[in-house]
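Trying the structure run again after the queue cleared.
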Amino acid sequence: MSRIAASAGVSVGLVQHYYASKDVLLADAYDRTLQVQQGRIETLVASEEQARGRIEHMVLGALTQFLPLDHDRRDETILFDHFSSVALRQPSLLEAWQRTDDVLLARLREAVVNAEECGEAREGVDPDDEARRLLAVTRGLARTLLLRDDAHEVARVRRVLAQECASTFPNPCRQYGS
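Done. Tokens:
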């Protein structure tokens, strides 16, 4: 709470005045951070759609938003990790985490289904399994970067995530020929 107060330029007491508990503050920070992150993803996907980009590139760009590649995304990753840890002990926070997880998985699943329709997806791919795999790999890579933040590791993580996406979407798009 002290870090949040300091970053806002106010006292801890003032922050506590507006939030009934640390969990309520954490939930609010989580929701607000998700909105910012989703805004970045929506902008990226809209740009790729307008350019008739590959679904592979849309998914890779979206998943990259979960990696701590700059100061803001590093803070987001730390917040998400902390939120998931606290959610293990707080049923209401766990429900919020699970709802968010379900939304992310549904969006990834939809991307895989769309890729099946246009021919980009690997033949015989299970959209639910692929969505789960891509999200799990991304979360693991994000945690790796938190703990091993150097240029070589950043390059490696970017490469691994690109390879994971390429393995899901190895074929050209029949609709746009990309």
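The helical segments are 2-8, 12-18, 22-50, 55-64, 71-87, 91-118, 127-147, 151-168. Worth checking whether this holds up in the mutant runs.
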